[in-house]
Amino acid sequence: MTTLTFKMLYAHQREGLSWLWSLHCRETGGILGDDMGLGKTMQVSAFLAGLFHSGLIQRVLVIAPKTLLTHWIKELTVVGLRHMISDYSGSNLDARDFELQHAFKEGGILLTTYDIARINYRLIRGDFYNDADDEEEGKIWNYVILDEAHFIKNPKTRRAQSLFEIPCVHRIAISGTPVQNNLKVPPS
């Protein structure tokens, strides 16, 4: 990560970077559950920039609500990753296929929505991509980032089940509301 990127982060975001790095070193995932408005997208973007610039990762899948994709593009651009973004969210199937194949072959960051990922999870997980040299134990994606992760809070839904079918080395869930109370869940 560049010094400029590091300097523009707040102290709590730098602490978040350190925590994300500890997850990376332990080859595990986690939930980034800071309150809304504290810059979770920037934390993850800066973290990914450091990993890409260090050559530690090749491919990242970011799944977010459609309304947040422009925010992801903005933050990834700020940290110098604009050239690595592929948009897999449009309605043009040929364009989406091109972006997916580009991400598989060249690496980078593939941005998509929950619904498109649910419908196309077999394509996204690489069922029709055969380049064993690029895979780490069958895992094409180094990271799968799930923004607004409460979209998959019920593991029995087709959405959640299909997204967990996408193999990856690390999975990071992002949520401003990691614990949501309802009538079936006792309040904390």
UniProtKB/TrEMBL annotation:
GO terms for molecular function: ATP binding; DNA translocase activity. It comes from the Eukaryota. InterPro entries: Helicase_ATP-bd, P-loop_NTPase, SNF2-like_sf, SNF2_N, SNF2_RAD54_helicase_repair. Pfam families: SNF2-rel_dom (PF00176). PANTHER family: HELICASE ATP-BINDING DOMAIN-CONTAINING PROTEIN (PTHR45629:SF12), SNF2/RAD54 FAMILY MEMBER (PTHR45629). This is DNA excision repair protein ERCC-6-like protein. It comes from Aegilops tauschii (Tausch's goatgrass).
